[in-house]
Amino acid sequence: MSDSLPLQGLRMVEFVHVVMGPTCGLVLADLGAEVIKIEPLGGDHTRKLTASGAGFFPAYNRNKKSIAVDLKSERGRELVFKLVGSADALSENFRPGAMDKLGFGYEPLSRLNPRLVYCSLKGFLPGPYDHRAGLDETAQMMGGLAYMTGGRERPLRAGASVIDVMGGMFGAIAILVAISERNRTGRGQYVQSALYESCAFLMGQHMMEGFMTGKPVVPMPERVRAWAVYDTFVTSDGERVFVGIVTDSQWRIFCQAFERPELLDDPELATNPQRVLARPRLLPIVTALFGGMTKAQLMAKCDDLGLPYAPIAKPEDLFADPHLQQSGGFAQLSLANGVTTRIPALPIAMGGRRFGTRLDLPRVGEHNASVLQELGYAASEIDRLAAEGVIANA
Length: 394
Known about the structure:
alpha/beta, 394 residues, 14% strand, formyl-coa transferase, domain 3, Rossmann fold, single chain, elongated, 3-stranded antiparallel β-sheet
């Protein structure tokens, strides 16, 4: 990777855990910012999660530094204040009021560092709900996403922490915009991002659908497709492939390639809205055509014709995906046990450049010494802070 990165020289301090907060820092860290993670002496509790939470810490904490400090001790607070005084931005996603109780709320820190951009990532933006604890799942349930995904009888959250990640991304956007504004005004500001509002933003298309049609919005498992052929099909070898035919030109290509001129000539199938109405008789024909091919044959045919298609992949299948492998789509990662693996990189390219790993996942307090030395602490003083339990022994 190039030594020069877009956000090189930007310093952010983060008080975060789980997914939303770490995602915000990850976006900035991958793009070159120095992101310093403040952890308790025992480390971020996300490090110890198991089962479905086992991937949270390794997924969202590369390219960061870690200092582990007792925030309840006077000397620990003193060194964090020094660090914040040197920072461009700060992010936090603890429960409402927690940072104020610690003395690290926006007001005192903005007095300490008027140029500081302070980002709070919460369950809700200011309003009647802002006192509530927020989770990705609660946002999906009350924001309509679980209803749209699972249907009326069994609301179902999406299969990834999409709202946590989206909220973190919006937090990163807010930070960068506030820094841009600071370049004009000379002052930082308080910015916020939230789970519930992120989910509501996703629901905008469905809200407008209901408004425009005057009908209640139907959840995904029950809704009439916007396109006549937009389904998952079982192939002759028992595999599944999604295929979409979403334009009239694609319909013409399909009919010609599969030698079904009678479908192309049928006046009741001339337009997509007509084909949607004719799905009961059309879909069995398409299902039979695709079902006579193997998965490999169907995908090769669609690829050759330029029709949208997709195999039904599992997360573990992505490790072997040739596009991700050959396009710079993976970042290298060394886990705490020394095992090296890969993880999807930030999904953007700038000037053809992708962004990978500069710093592996930090050990708890791994950067205590280097960060404190930069703040002016002598080596002997750092050793004394560790001996007194103010910072962790890295």
